[in-house]
Amino acid sequence: MKKVSVVGAGIGGLTAAIYLQNYGYQVEVFEKNSRPGGKMDIIEENGFKFDTGPTIVMMPEIYQNPFKDTGVDYKDYFKLQRVNPFMDVYIDGVRTALSSDLVDLASIFESQGEYEMEGFLNYLADIYSKYRNAKDNFIYKSFRGPKDFYNFKTLIQAYKLKTFSSSFEALSKHIKNPQLRNLLAFQTLYIGISPFNGPSIYNIIPMIELTSGVWFIQGGMFQYAAALEKRFLELGGVIRYDTEVTEIVVDTDNSAIGVQTTAGFHESQAVVANSDFPYTVENLINIPEKRLGKYTKKRIKQLDYSMSCYILYLGVNKNFSELGLHTIRMSEDFEGNVQAIENGIFPDDPSFYIYNPSTIDNSFAPSDQSAIYVLIPVSNLKGTESWETAKADHLKANVLEIMENELGMTDLKDHIVYERAFTPETFKHRYNSLFGATFGLKPTLFQSNYFRPHNKHSTIQNLYFAGASVHPGAGVPIVITSGQLTANEVIKDL
Ligand SMILES: Cc1cc2nc3c(=O)[nH]c(=O)nc-3n(C[C@H](O)[C@H](O)[C@H](O)COP(=O)(O)OP(=O)(O)OC[C@H]3O[C@@H](n4cnc5c(N)ncnc54)[C@H](O)[C@@H]3O)c2cc1C
Which UniProt keywords apply (predicted)? Predict the structure, then answer.
């Protein structure tokens, strides 16, 4: 039986592992940490439970694929629940609940006049048609060589995406009201890119949120990581936790022949790296630069990296019933705030996101208490020495003050009984994300689609990649897709 080694039990690694094991290979996953899921991680302490990374479930049909495609019913592994309203957004202190009922949602735009309503419908139609194009020609297709992209059909479709303007510029063509624009602009931050300079194609994120809705996994996101692990083990796969891969071993013919781990060498016919692509090239492949192809170690450092996150996990001995599942608080100067983050500056008036799962699921906190997650987008560590604790403390105090004064959580600070934080340093060390860039390589125009690192290495045989920094990109459903595409590449070759 042919053997495949997988580096990392993140969502990309586990998905690839399930498809490959199901196909008939003997797959062994090596994970440095003690749990599945990578950034889809969990903290359980003092009676509180926190999802530490992803929280917003979009495109639930993609989550179901690894189960459906291996012949089982996903409902036996995890339970999905629709969320409505899917988000509360605070702009200038005013709360707007975004409904997943399109009729209710449209009334927000209609209330600003027929012109805004028409703009909203045009915006949806325009981005939906681009999404159809991107889905069929770019997202669910993997690229190996230039011929896969530089052909007449694909270039025409790429041109039709008209992705050269920024998300915000494309949005502004249709929507004139600044508050309404902001309602549709912040979602590109979900993949760590600014709406003010990220390619307009990423407007598909708010479009999918508005037209397909947002879902919740009962018991929390970590249930999904546990579900993937369960399916993989059922199929006969093996996972070695607390086992770090120290090298992907490449022979003199430039073929990957296995992995060196803290528990010894493991030989295999193919290696799938789910560890973040830039980290993997920089740290796990020890061959001369000229054999590395396009992505040399020198080039890796010059690439653009996504933002990072500062996340507070607060155990609170009070139930803030007015706080919904997902809340966004936008800075008064949203563009200035995003620019500050891109320029390595701690924001004075931050935009941030709050997740309050206790509002719909009582497994997160003791009764009448809440487990609250506050995510503040911040700069990654590229170009800085280290995380600046004093500035972070000031930022935290600022955020708690805003939550009390603007979001109606008046006595929040008095009720905090448990506290923990993840910083860019945590992402760097806990998950090996280069520069602590939580969403991996930034999806700029020249780091997207064909121009993102491919799922198969261009010069090293039998080496493949699944995860947020490679094609098609970051976000749980997209990373699941990456795992599927990568497994197909391995199967094609083996
Ligand atoms: C704070 C946060 C919020 C997010 N919110 C959302 C959201 O709401 N919705 C959404 O869809 N997406 C969200 N995302 C994005 C999404 O979580 C990620 O894109 C996705 O989980 C990345 O999966 P991955 O498999 O690429 O990588 P990872 O999760 O990073 O997994 C890589 C794995 O490899 C392991 N590893 C690394 N090096 C080694 C080594 N040398 N040896 C062995 N193992 C190794 C790591 O420990 C890790 O387990 C969020 C991400 C973050 C961080």
Answer: Carotenoid biosynthesis, Oxidoreductase
